[in-house]
TrEMBL record:
<keyword id="KW-0812">Transmembrane</keyword>
<dbReference type="Pfam" id="PF01435">
    <property type="entry name" value="Peptidase_M48"/>
</dbReference>
<feature type="transmembrane region" description="Helical">
    <location>
        <begin position="93"/>
        <end position="116"/>
    </location>
</feature>
<feature type="transmembrane region" description="Helical">
    <location>
        <begin position="33"/>
        <end position="51"/>
    </location>
</feature>
<feature type="binding site">
    <location>
        <position position="299"/>
    </location>
    <ligand>
        <name>Zn(2+)</name>
    </ligand>
</feature>
<keyword id="KW-0482">Metalloprotease</keyword>
<feature type="compositionally biased region" description="Basic and acidic residues">
    <location>
        <begin position="7"/>
        <end position="23"/>
    </location>
</feature>
<dbReference type="Pfam" id="PF16491">
    <property type="entry name" value="Peptidase_M48_N"/>
</dbReference>
<dbReference type="GO" id="GO:0004222">
    <property type="term" value="F:metalloendopeptidase activity"/>
</dbReference>
<feature type="transmembrane region" description="Helical">
    <location>
        <begin position="174"/>
        <end position="192"/>
    </location>
</feature>
<protein>
    <submittedName>
        <fullName>STE24 endopeptidase</fullName>
        <ecNumber>3.4.24.84</ecNumber>
    </submittedName>
</protein>
<feature type="transmembrane region" description="Helical">
    <location>
        <begin position="199"/>
        <end position="220"/>
    </location>
</feature>
<keyword id="KW-0378">Hydrolase</keyword>
<dbReference type="InterPro" id="IPR032456">
    <property type="entry name" value="Peptidase_M48_N"/>
</dbReference>
<keyword id="KW-0479">Metal-binding</keyword>
<dbReference type="GO" id="GO:0071586">
    <property type="term" value="P:CAAX-box protein processing"/>
</dbReference>
<keyword id="KW-0645">Protease</keyword>
Length: 450
């Protein structure tokens, strides 16, 4: 099922002065240096991704089991999932198309420069205003698509949010995104104004900012959207903490998020690392049988045990640094400068171009992130099976998640590449059967209705 595409920017402004062509100091030598730095970062990113991604989930020799939705889901359930997916497709793809269109306009036309040229004040005020204006315009353009998407969720009973709370969440997300984008852009412009080779400190800054953001996210951003309370005392909490201890993963607490205020979907996740690491389960999940909740938490323990958030953050931080170097190379290119009429990143007129490139970078790197994520998720599933040795409950839990969340049971190639951060449910169930055969335990039978 496609998620809603996120992140974009703006739209044309009008008027404004012309911009001179002034190559930045450092010229050719700086570009060669940046080229080498990008190649070096590319090799490091490739190596970290290659060696930290579990390409094989089960040991060689595990019997292959083919994913088959019809084995576990009724024809009615499969049809409902297909209809829901189709209902979300249109607003999702339109939102993605709009995101790409706006980014394309910013990267290939003088729209961003013309808008910024109309602003007055010190350079940093103009830069901040340009970020705010471009974000506001984009958010406005995407707003109706967001409402369309949200209405579909309501039609299918997945969202129980009021429009007021939906709009509040959306504005908060846009606010957080604007603050982060503004911080990055003001820093880039400030460095470009001061140093010919601004991209070196900027790349280091992007690395540091990504690590810091991932660390503080659970304690700064997540509380803006949900309330978290320690799971109530009782047998479930005791069992979960005992399981974590048995697993050798130090967990002080399992937190419950009040997700039922906005959704009926079931979910759990791990975020942060080191002192801010937390395992969170949605309160909606607590209605499931305790054995199934345990399986979900066992999967999350798999992430915690292998430090998936930390490796993900490291890759994201390296990707951010490489992105800055690429930004320097792209914005130095003659055709880009001529088309956007941005002669230097030291000028706040570059804000639109920077935002457009950042959006394109985020969209284009998504499929690579998904490939890595799907393998990491499969490893966490295998961990849950190793820890609980209960493939039958694993399959029951996967079925409950898929039916309640109306998951896409047979995503097409485009959806899989663009949006699938997890293997599809039939693949996850097939993994459990394969694990059971490997461990000489009875493979969970299929039990789709007649
Ligand atoms: Zn996971």
């Amino acid at each position: 099922m496609p998620g809603e595409a996120t992140g974009t920017r703006d739209e044309p402004g009008t008027g404004g002065e012309d911009v001179r062509e002034t190559p930045e100091a450092g010229g050719g030598a700086s570009l060669r240096g940046a080229g080498w730095a990008l190649a070096g970062l590319g090799v490091v990113i490739g190596a970290v991704a290659w060696f930290s991604t579990p390409w094989r989930t089960l040991p060689a020799g595990a019997p292959h089991v083919a994913p088959d939705p019809a084995r576990d889901f009724t024809a009615e359930q499969i049809a409902r999932a297909r209809a829901f997916d189709a209902a979300l497709s249109v607003p999702s793809y339109l939102s993605l198309a709009l995101t790409l269109l706006v980014a394309g306009v910013l990267v290939a036309t003088p729209a961003g420069a013309l808008l910024a040229a109309r602003l007055r004040g010190p350079w940093w005020v103009r830069a901040l205003c340009a970020v705010a204006a471009l974000t506001a315009v984009t958010e406005l353009l995407r707003w109706p698509l967001g409402m369309w998407y949200e209405s579909r969720l309501r039609d299918y009973g997945l969202s129980v949010q009021t429009w007021g709370s939906w709009a509040g969440d959306r504005l908060k997300s846009a606010g957080v995104e604007t603050l982060l984008t503004a911080a990055m852009i003001v820093v880039v412009i400030a460095l470009a104004r001061r140093f010919a080779r601004w991209w070196i400190p900027a790349a280091a800054g992007a690395f540091a900012l990504t690590v810091a953001a991932s660390f503080v996210y659970p304690v700064v951003v997540e509380p803006l959207f949900s309330d978290f309370t320690p799971m109530a005392q009782g047998p479930l909490r005791r069992d979960l903490l005992a399981m974590a201890e048995r697993d050798g993963v130090p967990v002080e607490d399992v937190l419950v998020a009040d997700a039922s205020r906005r959704t009926t979907a079931l979910n759990a996740y791990v975020s942060g690392f080191g002192a801010t690491r937390r395992i969170v389960v949605y309160d909606t999940l607590l209605k499931a049988p305790p054995r199934e909740v345990e399986l979900v938490v066992a999967h999350e323990l798999g992430h915690a045990k292998r430090n998936d958030v930390l490796y993900g953050t490291l890759l994201g931080a390296l990707g951010g640094a490489a992105g800055v170097v690429l930004l320097h190379l792209v914005t130095s290119a003659g055709p880009v400068r001529r088309r956007t009429r941005v002669s230097s990143l030291a000028d706040p007129r570059a804000v639109g171009l920077l935002m457009g490139l950042m959006t394109l970078g985020a969209v284009l790197s998504g499929p690579a992130q998904n490939v890595i994520s799907r393998h990491i998720e499969a490893r966490a599933d295998a961990h849950a099976l190793d820890l609980t040795r209960d493939p039958a409950t694993f399959v029951a839990m996967q079925k409950r998640l898929a039916i309640t969340n109306i998951s896409d049971l047979s995503p097409d190639v485009v959806e899989y590449v663009l949006y699938a951060s997890h293997p599809a449910t039939p693949e996850r169930i097939a993994l459990a059967r394969s694990w059971a055969l490997l461990n000489r335990l009875p493979a969970p039978p299929g039990n789709a209705g007649p």
